[in-house]
Specification:
By secondary structure, the protein is of the alpha+beta class. It folds into three domains: 45 residues, no CATH class; 105 residues, Uridine Diphospho-n-acetylenolpyruvylglucosamine Reductase, domain 3 (2-Layer Sandwich), CATH 3.30.465.10; 94 residues, Enolase-like, domain 1 (2-Layer Sandwich). Helix content is 30%, strand content 22%. The protein has a five-stranded antiparallel β-sheet. The chain has a four-stranded antiparallel β-sheet with strand order 9-10-11-12, sandwiched between helices. Strand 4 and strand 5 form a beta hairpin. The longest helix is centred in the C-terminal third of the chain and has 17 residues. The termini are far apart. The structure holds flavin-adenine dinucleotide (FAD). Flavin-adenine dinucleotide binds next to strand 2, helix 6 and helix 7.
Length: 266
């Protein structure tokens, strides 16, 4: 099938052009593979070079990441140092120089490590029409292509509140068997507002409410960690794929969650 590629000067113009037969092209690390395999799922790809898409802004305790910001750019910015360990574990250097924040939100299982981290940071998607959508809501409905994401905003963590763990068979740049992110405000004392998210344990990345409840109001010590690991896979039915079976993911998730919670905060 012939696929046309159209450029739009602004986000607004691109958003107006989207429809069932038009797919967003960002860094193209997944879209172009689909095109090469005849699986683009659309007759037209649409992209924009609007500079707003690559902006990184810090405002009132929050950080706003343009959807076109690449993993390489995240790794290079001092104010994003808490996200750099996540970005650096996505593919190799060539992938990271193209792979975008926006594309990661729509990257199918088992991809989505960065989306998992943003989900645990209570990220909010800024849509092209100005609407704000919590990432949990956007990710749950992403198969329906809910429109163009302009940026993602997230609260800036205090030192030591955020941690991320990626489990892969091939190091350093293998695809995730699972990824886990936790935002533990008050981890030095009592945790309030715990957020824990998993990637590759469900399609799409998900918040893990039973684990969050087990940690809420507790000190990050042996008793709370034991309660959290006991709830590690409650309500989840992890998928089988070429990397791991759902059984393997279910059996090993508590071990990795415990390691995530016990590790020194970074
Ligand atoms: C060799 C290799 C290794 C990889 N390793 C990893 C890994 O370790 N971890 C990981 O998470 N991913 C990995 N990926 C997947 C991918 O590179 C990343 O998920 C990347 O962030 C996708 O971004 P992109 O800009 O390339 O998206 P694209 O390929 O351009 O687009 C991906 C999807 O998102 C949609 N989209 C893109 N931007 C927007 C937007 N702003 N609004 C609405 N829809 C949008 C597209 O229409 C498409 O459906 C890997 C890919 C390859 C090829």
């Amino acid at each position: 099938m012939t696929v046309s590629v159209d450029h739009f000067a602004t986000v607004a113009e691109l958003a107006r052009a989207l429809g069932p037969d038009t797919r967003v092209l960002a860094g193209g690390t997944l879209v172009m593979r689909d095109v090469n395999y005849g699986q683009a799922g659309a007759a037209r790809l649409a992209y924009t070079t609007d500079p707003a898409l690559t902006e990184i802004r810090a405002e009132a305790g929050r950080i706003v990441l343009g959807a076109g910001v690449t993993m390489a750019a995240v790794s290079a910015r001092p104010e994003l140092s808490f996200l750099a360990p996540v970005a650096r574990q996505i593919g190799g250097p060539a992938v990271r120089s193209m792979a975008t924040v926006g594309g990661n939100l729509f990257a199918p299982h088992p991809y989505g490590d960065f989306a998992t981290a943003l989900l645990a940071r209570d990220g909010v998607a800024e849509m092209a029409d100005g609407a704000a959508r919590p990432l949990a809501d956007l990710l749950a409905r992403r198969a329906a292509r809910p429109g163009f994401v302009r940026a993602v905003s997230l609260a800036r963590p205090q030192t030591g509140e955020f941690r991320f763990r990626k489990v892969s068979r091939v190091k350093p740049k293998g695809v995730s068997v699972m990824s886990m992110a936790a935002w533990l405000p008050g981890a030095a004392g009592r945790i309030t507002g715990a957020r824990v998210a998993y990637g590759a344990m469900a399609e799409p990345p998900v918040r893990v409410a039973p684990v969050e409840r087990a940690l809420e109001g507790a000190a990050l010590a042996a008793a709370a960690i034991a309660r959290a690991t006991a709830a590690a896979t409650e309500g989840l039915n992890p998928p089988d794929d070429a990397l791991a079976s759902g059984w393997y993911r279910r059996e090993t998730a508590p071990v990795h969650l415990r390691r995530l919670l016990e590790e020194r905060a970074g």
